[in-house]
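Exercise 7.
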Amino acid sequence: MATAAKYEGIIKTLQWDDLRSLWNNIEERNTTPDWETGKAFEYLVLRAFQLDGAEVKFPYSVRLFEEEVEQIDGAIHCLGISCLVESKDFTDKKVDIAPIAKLRNQLLRRPAATVGLIFSRTGFTPPALALSHFSLPQAILLWNGEEIKYALDNEKYVSY
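Solution. The predicted structure, written as tokens, is:
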């Protein structure tokens, strides 16, 4: 199993064409042996934002009194906006409400302007979509696989 530092080292060498190739491998479920399940997707999202000019923090843990209290899939800072990232790469099921509720709780411990971003290759269940609309005052934006692929193809995650 690779370490977070190794994953970060690998992903930082990839450019847009490489990310599109990695996306195809993710969709075909063909990322081993280089990537542990779900890690390629997690790092691809962050690298795409980074290539488009955002400052990113790759996955990290938050510790309190020497204990891990949170595992964050990443953070993105761009255009004066700070975002916490949650990435879900399920084989065939859609993301339900649990990751949205988890991210909402994480946002409650952050400055009020922090935005939550959840990325799911397979999309979201209707209850998850509804909950994201009622997460106020926290803003949680959902990205499905089609939107991720569109942004990759157009090399636009931040810029317009």
